[in-house]
Amino acid sequence: MTRDDTGGTAAVDAVVVGAGFSGLYMSHRLRELGLSVQVFEKAPDVGGTWYWNRYPGARCDSESHIYCYSFSEEIREEWEWSERYPEQPEILDYLRFAADHLDLREQISFETAVESATFDEDAGTWTVETDGGESVTSRFFISAVGCLSEPYTPDFDNRDAFEGESYHTARWPQNGVELAGKRVGVIGTGSTGIQLTPEVADRAGHLTVFQRTPNYAVPARNRPLGDDEWAEIKANYDEIWEDARFSWLGMPFEMTHATTAGLSDEEIRDALEEGWQAGGFRFLHTFEDTLFNDDTNEIVSEFLREKIREQVDDPETAEKLVPTAHPYGSKRPPMDYGGYYETFNREDVTLADVAENPITEFTPEGIQTTANHYDLDTVIFATGFDAMTGALLAMDIEGRDGYTLEEAWEGGPRTYLGLGVDGFPNLFTITGPQSPSVLSNMPVSIEQHVDWIADCIEYMQSEGYEYIEPQSAAAERWVSQTNMLADQMLFSEAESWYRGANVPDKPRVFTPFPGGVETYRRECERVVENGYEGFEFGQSVDGVAGSAD
Ligand code: NAP
């Protein structure tokens, strides 16, 4: 128990919501600072997104040696990944191992969702209420809810009329789903649908993939990690991580070329072929200006279109699978782990183009489009998330003057550095909107955010400050800068979830910071060096004037 500035008693110093990568590390850092911490986690175990996304083929597109914590030498030494890209069960095991190793479980209440968090200006504390009826007061309220946590299921007409089984990939049952011999429909061809499709095709009696927008999948080129490779990684771990921290995507890969300009057709082809063979996000590192320069992008996109055509036997099906409406990278580039395009060469797989013939309704027996009825036993929604803001807004968060986060973000999220929100004292958002978050290798960004927040709280302790809040002007500036950068890139040419376009009535603003992990990290460091420029500190809640200007 601690005493807050107004003399009341707060139950804990900090409430952290979520026990995935970010919540676990945050609670560890806070405890090391001597703070009392209460973590609330909706799931029955740690893992966050990796607890929920257990659909067949679920795997991380970041390479395993950098998709983990770097802060603990012991965890680093004791854990070895088995493959180049970690599969969901292995990531979950890793997070369980980390939670046990750091002895974090005691401070976590599992199967407990935060329903509301209200800032009490008189007491100067947050009151956090859960679906289990608990009410806890705390000085800090820290969101570690993740960026892709709130599943999105389109509201198809008569969706509930379907009498078969239906599942969302992000709420996949613990004990799996029996697909053998079933007529299965998968809706969605984003990163999830592309991972899932070959796996379902192998298990199901017949698979129909309902595709609205074709995508550019690049082979991930997964493989087991050999002992020699591990030894090499371990010997160079510090350097690898330092490169990742000061990189574009939080991945320690060099750009092969600045641009296509000035290169011969053969040189361009060789560079792209090299990237294609390297696989995964390394392909995106072939030309530095892929996401800025229309000419380079069109060359890269056309290369990928040709690759798709080469993999699909039937030319008509191939053309349906070739993306033409959006440039490569303007939507999150998906990875192919198991012959995604070749799946459509199978006799027992059908591609339903629902851009050409939209889904009109669900029926008791399946799905009706404007062209056909598809008889199905099981429907799988690989339809994505209410990304970046969905999980935050699912909690009823109320700041100063009874002003809610929903009201504050009516026109889209507005943060300073993705770390804090003006009008909401002592609220921190790990990998919040307007931070690199989903445009980066998450653990690198998570560690940076958690360290920044923990260091800030330590600074407050040493200076005797009780409250912190971003200045409104700083938040305003940061949001404009994020949007300006996005406008200079090709992101504006796609209707993507980065821009809220996948959820009806969601404000269409670009949510992640697109300027890269290195630029962002240096900006956060600069802010601290300048005495936390853009933030206000105070001994009393009135002393922080974030909402005043
Ligand atoms: P997503 O990228 O939002 O894809 C959703 C899919 O559902 C899209 O193909 C979309 O079509 C389709 N869809 C949505 N509403 C529809 C409707 N009414 N009718 C027909 N189709 C509809 O979601 P996701 O694939 O789950 O991926 C989300 C993000 O999670 C990824 O971008 C990535 O950041 C992350 N993720 C990462 C990994 C990994 O690291 N391995 C794996 C999976 C996901 P449109 O494109 O036409 O909207």
Portion of residues in beta strands equals 15-25%
Q: Catalogue the unreliable spans.
A: 1-10
Structural class: alpha/beta
What small-molecule ligands were found? NADP nicotinamide-adenine-dinucleotide phosphate
What is the number of beta strands?
22
What share of the residues lie within helices?
25-40%
Largest sheet: 8 strands, mixed
Describe this structure in words.
- The protein is of the alpha/beta class.
- It has 15 helices and 22 strands.
- It has helices at residues 21-32, 49-52, 73-78, 88-101, 191-203, 227-235, 237-245, 265-278, 294-311, 315-321, 390-394, 405-408, 442-463, 472-488, 517-529; strands at residues 2-3, 9-10, 12-17, 37-40, 108-109, 114-120, 125-130, 135-143, 165-168, 183-187, 206-211, 218-219, 335-336, 349-353, 359-363, 366-369, 373-375, 378-381, 396-398, 427-429, 467-470, 535-538.
- It is globular.
- Bound molecules: NADP nicotinamide-adenine-dinucleotide phosphate.
- Residues 59-61, 148, 154, 187-193, 195, 210, 212-213, 332, 354, 359, 382-385, 438, 497, 502 line the site of NADP nicotinamide-adenine-dinucleotide phosphate.
- The site of NADP nicotinamide-adenine-dinucleotide phosphate has 26 residues, from α5.
